[in-house]
Amino acid sequence: MFSVVLATYNEEKNLARCLDSIKDLADEIIVVDGESSDQTAQIAKKYGAKVIITTNKPVFHINKQLAMDQAKGELVLQLDADEVIDDELKVFIKKIIHSIEVGNKNDLPSAWWIKRKNNFLGKFLKKGGQYPDPVIRLYQKGKACLPQKDVHEQMTVQGELGWAEGHLLHYPYPNFELYIQKWNAYTSLKAHQLQQEGVHITFLHSLQFFFIKPCVTFLSLFIRHKGFVDGYPGFIFALYSGLYHSMSYLKLWELDKKRY
């Protein structure tokens, strides 16, 4: 049995595309929805998904783990609603399903890295550290879990890791407005994490977060990792990846003001 699991929140524009790519492959689809105000849950149900409604957590991986815990299949694929599996990955998953069905489960890795192509402002980024962007998403049930501490964390795996054939096609930022919305949410979350880590507003920290980290990040992505090859989208991605540090630190300052 093969399970596909997702956590969603207001994904009516993406979900159908995602589920179309796996509807003929999955034996069950589990969707944990964080009280979406749009048609996300209704769309999921049209595809035969089991939909579980819960609150939308600041650390979204909590809901992802809830979905993973509900899966009954021996093989599980965790997807985001803005992702699609390509044909090569679909063929690979079918091979793994067959291996499990014929009793070769113990000869397989516990989980697999999957290469991901990230579409940023209408362009799949080839450089800037954005490809192959491997993520652990395919795993044997019970052998992987999420730490549920950070938005960009990888699964923790018990056992050997392999590499899947094919790609996830990732469409997180079709336009700049949506990118800024998510960037704003991620910087707010990072500010809370900095506060929990005991980072304070000091001259040295200000120098680090306003100048050193942004410059190092931009130069690393745009020059060292050749983000300039991706043209204007590559420049914007590198620039705002650097400014992520400054905005997170500025929001930390606001949080500290509220505390005192």
Written overview of the protein:
- The mean pLDDT is 95.
- This protein starts with a strand and ends with a helix.
- The protein contains seven helices and eleven strands.
- The chain has 260 residues and is of the alpha/beta class.
Beta-strand fraction estimate = 15-25%
Question: In the CATH scheme, what's the topology name of the largest domain?
Answer: Spore Coat Polysaccharide Biosynthesis Protein SpsA, Chain A
Counting DSSP E segments of at least 2 residues, the number of strands comes to: 11
Low-pLDDT residue intervals, each spanning 5 or more residues: none
Shape: globular
Helix content: 40-55%
Task: Please identify the structural class as seen in this structure.
Answer: alpha/beta
Order of helices and strands: EHEHEHEEHEEEEEEHHH
* Biggest sheet descriptor: 9 strands, mixed
How many domains? The number is 2
Rg of Cα set:
20 Å
CATH superfamily of the largest domain: Spore Coat Polysaccharide Biosynthesis Protein SpsA, Chain A
Tell me the span between the first and last alpha carbons: 54 Å
> What is the typical, i.e. mean, pLDDT?
95
- CATH architecture assignment of the largest domain: Alpha-Beta Complex
